[in-house]
Amino acid sequence: MNRTQHYSLLRAMEIDKKNLLKYQEIYNYAYILSDGIFKIVFAEEKDHTLLISLVNAMLDLHGGETIKEITLEMQEFPGAFTKKDCIVDIIGTTNAGERVLVEVQQQGDEFYRDRVEYYMSRVIENQVHTSEKYELPRIYFLGLLDFTLFPEEPQKYIHHVDEMCNGRKFFPKIQKIFVEIEKFFRLEEKGITTNDNSEAAQWLRAIKVTINEEPVPEKIMQNETFRRLLDSVKLINFAEELFNCEVKNVTDLMAEHEIGFAEGKKEGHAEGFVQGKTEGHAEGREAGLAEGRAEGFAQGKTEGHAEGREAGLAEGRAEGFAQGKTEGLNEGELKKAREIAKGLRDDGVPMEIIVRRSGLSEDEIRKL
């Protein structure tokens, strides 16, 4: 499940909590880069095997430098007086006394780099106590990004950022690593990373399986760590309460999406989407349209078939799939199956899944 599909799920659950069951029939995996899913998968595991493997791969640590154990700590550094709090997705101390901060970011904004520096400064501030030497441990910040932060480097997806002076690292104890997951997916599709057999690339290929709902490559399936990852991210594993919490506690990204969605509803689907692009709300418009499709399906009979079908495909394809399995495709249902298939195709669902869910052939689906 990708980001857009994840938000479609949240919108559908706002309408009816039972919609979770319908999405579990369509999608194998939850959106791993959601804050809630990410923390459950990587922070709640007893031995933190997945987290340690992920961090070692992305930080490119080998031999004696690898992290062998990690102790997780409170995520929040409360702000003093009027200062903002600092809440990190995952923060821990390794067996070597190093500090590791892991932060997932689904969408970029103009102050993202400022926030990273603020988080780092708050952690650094808490390392030296009264009567102690000004001696800092090694501190790593790992940012996992579902957007492009370095467009000026189109073929590089991992960036080790250091403070430099005359071509040398000024303070090597503090390092920031940013992984552009979305960029890696694009490079992979173009075949540019085909010969990249690094541990980081293998990790991202495993993550790609869950986000794009792809068949599992043999090399990923043979790896015990990745098998554990895929099992832990299965959508069926997550209870309704988690998604209810995400619906109620809207993240900064969701707030941005809400702006675009509200504007889009007022201006109409076509005009609102165009204006949303110019105002930086393309993702918000996409999430807004997903909600519109879910709401529109329920209201489409009374508000007009054309508008209802466009707005309600997210809800309609789930209901149509469940009904289609039990009732079979007659003449009336064939039309509905085509509508469902077209909606899935437009949402980027892999062709083999659409064929399996709708009962139509690939040729029929491409002609829709």
Note down, in words, how this protein is organized.
- There is one protein chain.
- This protein has 17 helices and 10 strands.
- By secondary structure, it is an alpha+beta fold.
- The longest helix is centred in the C-terminal third of the chain and has 23 residues, at 305-327.
- Mean pLDDT is 81; it is low at 77-82 and 250-254.
Low-confidence stretches: 77-82, 250-254
Strand order of the largest sheet: 1-4-5-6-10-7
Spatial extent as radius of gyration: 23 Å
- Major beta sheet, specifics? 6 strands, mixed
Shape: elongated
Helix and strand content put the structural class at alpha+beta
How many angstroms separate the termini?
A: 23 Å
| Helix fraction by DSSP (H/I, runs of at least 4) | 40-55%
Number of strand segments: 10
Query: Would you tell me the overall average pLDDT?
Result: 81
How many DSSP helices? 17
- Strand proportion, as a percent range, falls in 5-15%
Order of helices and strands: HHHHEEEEEHEEEEEHHHHHHHHHHHH
